[in-house]
């Protein structure tokens, strides 16, 4: 079927299969920041926004994007770069494979929570796994980024 | 991976139900996170997007929740954070992560009667009714005990009361399925104790709930109600815990749950 959506503020019409998932559609159209790792809703690497809400693109049918505004990290270069610099300065990135999904979640959290506590930050991000780091660097980076350090 | 041969987006519930019933493999599509984990070959996928079932509202003394509402909407909606001590949001907070809860739906979560469900246990401790397209409206406890029939869950109705409630779960690691979960509630000194992830589906401890309701909550009756709950309900063994372990956990969590409700009352 054909879906019409906005991807990073650009209107597009895409042909998708009934059982196609959004992560695959996005990657096939060149949005390679969208990673797929577990493919079972457990790791958060495939996080994108749908109408401003973070979603696991590996588990959302592409047809559900019809009429929606999809945002990937390619659509947020300024915000992503600002936070990514803090991440690397805090030594919170190793292979970097989890970073696009993680950054999309952090930016969604920034929009949703006002002055979150450490516990709220940790809880908000439980859906984003990282196999390299120990999360402490990321927590430091988030606190600096949000100005709650 | 599951496959979907045809896809329909019906304009009304009757049409959705008709298509669902037409063939054995026709299937309602919720958020699809659970369907995706299986290998089902779906003949016609019934997408409810056009039916506007994504809402939470107050109607005639009930909180009404449409089947396509996401778990995250339940977690953050003021009607649910401000009622029953936020027991529903509390029950959802450990299910994977925010992005996951933004995508999965309440209709699928209740209709599927998952044994591990956090939400069903919490709903069972409240005055919850389930509305199905064909079978109609019934108490959640009746729905859970009915044999599974193909139907379309349309919405939930939760009586809007001043019921005080508490939810507790025990997990081996964050965002894993619960080893056991417990919800306790009280309205006008009538108590309800519900236990889920036994690992079979949630059930109300009828005798223990009656004991507290009849004799009031004292340190002795609380101990007795916790013990009775662990004795009247059955527990099983799976990779997350043994039946014996669950029984012991049940006693501890029920006691804590009752104490939490009492603490709410005195606030
Ligand atoms: C990896 C993973 C971990 C999870 N962990 C937990 C957990 O810890 N605690 C917990 O409580 N839950 C957990 N869940 C379950 C989750 O919360 C949802 O309940 C589940 O994913 C179903 O929601 P869905 O919208 O994805 O449904 P779908 O996958 O779309 O559908 C599931 C079933 O429900 C049917 N269905 C959907 N909507 C309706 C309707 N309106 N009427 C009738 N039938 C319908 C579908 O046909 C299908 O058979 C987990 C799920 C996954 C995938
Ligand atoms: S790839 Fe989507 S959650 Fe892991
Ligand atoms: S930096 Fe390697 S998975 Fe996170």
TrEMBL record, chain A:
Name the domain of life. Answer: Bacteria
Keywords, sorted A to Z: 2Fe-2S, Iron, Iron-sulfur, Metal-binding
Q: Which Gene3D superfamilies match?
A: 3.10.20.30, [2Fe-2S]-binding domain (1.10.150.120)
- UniProt domain 2Fe-2S ferredoxin-type: residue ranges: 1-76
Q: Example GO molecular function term?
A: oxidoreductase activity
User: Does this UniProt record's set of keywords contain Cytoplasm?
Assistant: no
InterPro entries cross-referenced by the UniProt entry = 2Fe-2S-bd, 2Fe-2S-bd_dom_sf, 2Fe-2S_ferredoxin-like_sf, 2Fe-2S_ferredoxin-type, Beta-grasp_dom_sf, Diverse_Oxidoreductases
Which PANTHER family does this chain map to? OXIDOREDUCTASE WITH IRON-SULFUR SUBUNIT, XANTHINE DEHYDROGENASE IRON-SULFUR-BINDING SUBUNIT XDHC-RELATED
**What is the name attached to this protein's record?**
Carbon-monoxide dehydrogenase small subunit
Which species does the entry assign this protein to? Desulfosporosinus lacus DSM 15449
Automatic annotation (TrEMBL), chain B:
Q: Which UniProt keywords apply?
A: FAD, Flavoprotein, Oxidoreductase
- Taxonomically, which superkingdom? Bacteria
Q: Does the keyword Flavoprotein apply?
A: yes
Domain FAD-binding PCMH-type spans what residues?
A: 1-163
Q: Which SMART domains match?
A: CO_deh_flav_C
The record ties this protein, via Gene3D superfamilies, to: 3.30.465.10, CO dehydrogenase flavoprotein, C-terminal domain (3.30.390.50)
Q: Which Pfam families match?
A: CO_deh_flav_C, FAD_binding_5
Question: InterPro entries annotated for this entry?
Answer: CO_DH_flav_C, CO_DH_flav_C_dom_sf, Diverse_Substr_Oxidored, FAD-bd_PCMH, FAD-bd_PCMH-like_sf, FAD-bd_PCMH_sub2, Mopterin_DH_FAD-bd
What Gene Ontology molecular-function terms does this entry list? FAD binding; oxidoreductase activity
What protein name applies here? Answer: CO or xanthine dehydrogenase, FAD-binding subunit
Q: Which organism is it from?
A: Desulfosporosinus lacus DSM 15449
């Amino acid at each position: 079927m054909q879906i019409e959506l906005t991807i990073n503020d650009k209107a597009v019409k895409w042909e998708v299969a009934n059982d196609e998932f959004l992560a695959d559609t996005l990657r096939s159209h060149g949005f390679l920041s969208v990673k797929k790792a577990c493919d079972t809703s457990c790791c958060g690497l495939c996080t994108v926004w749908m109408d401003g809400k973070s979603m696991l693109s590996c588990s959302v049918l592409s047809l559900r994007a019809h009429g929606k505004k999809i945002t990937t990290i390619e659509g947020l270069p300024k915000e992503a770069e600002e936070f990514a610099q803090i991440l690397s300065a805090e030594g919170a990135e190793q292979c970097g494979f989890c970073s696009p999904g993680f950054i999309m979640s952090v930016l969604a959290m920034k929009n949703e929570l006002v002055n979150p506590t450490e516990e709220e930050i940790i809880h908000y991000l439980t859906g984003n796994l990282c196999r390299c780091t120990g999360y402490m660097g990321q927590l430091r980076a988030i606190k600096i980024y949000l100005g709650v350090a | 991976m599951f496959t979907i041969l045809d896809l329909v987006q019906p304009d009304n519930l009757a049409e959705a139900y008709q298509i669902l019933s037409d063939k054995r493999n026709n299937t309602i599509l919720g958020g699809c996170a659970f369907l995706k984990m299986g290998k089902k070959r779906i003949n016609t996928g019934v997408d409810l997007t056009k039916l506007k079932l994504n809402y939470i509202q107050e109607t005639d003394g009930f909180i009404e929740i449409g089947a396509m509402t996401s778990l995250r909407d339940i977690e953050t909606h003021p009607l649910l954070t401000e009622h029953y001590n936020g027991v529903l949001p509390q029950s959802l907070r450990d299910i994977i992560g925010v992005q996951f809860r933004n995508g999965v739906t309440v209709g699928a979560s209740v209709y599927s009667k998952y044994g591990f469900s956090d939400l069903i246990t919490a709903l069972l401790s409240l005055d919850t009714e389930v509305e199905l397209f064909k079978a109609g409206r019934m108490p959640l406890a009746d729905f859970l005990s009915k044999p599974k029939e193909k139907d379309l869950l349309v919405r939930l109705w939760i009586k809007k009361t001043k019921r005080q409630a508490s939810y507790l779960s025990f997990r081996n690691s964050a965002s894993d399925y619960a080893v056991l979960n417990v919800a306790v509630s009280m309205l006008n000194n009538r108590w309800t104790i519900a236990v889920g992830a036994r690992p079979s589906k949630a059930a109300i401890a009828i005798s223990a709930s009656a004991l507290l309701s009849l004799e009031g909550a004292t340190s002795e009756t609380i101990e007795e109600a916790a013990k009775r709950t662990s004795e009247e309900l059955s527990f099983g063994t799976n990779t997350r815990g043994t039946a014996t372990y669950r029984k012991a956990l049940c006693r501890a969590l029920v006691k804590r749950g009752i104490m939490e409700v009492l603490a709410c009352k005195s606030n």
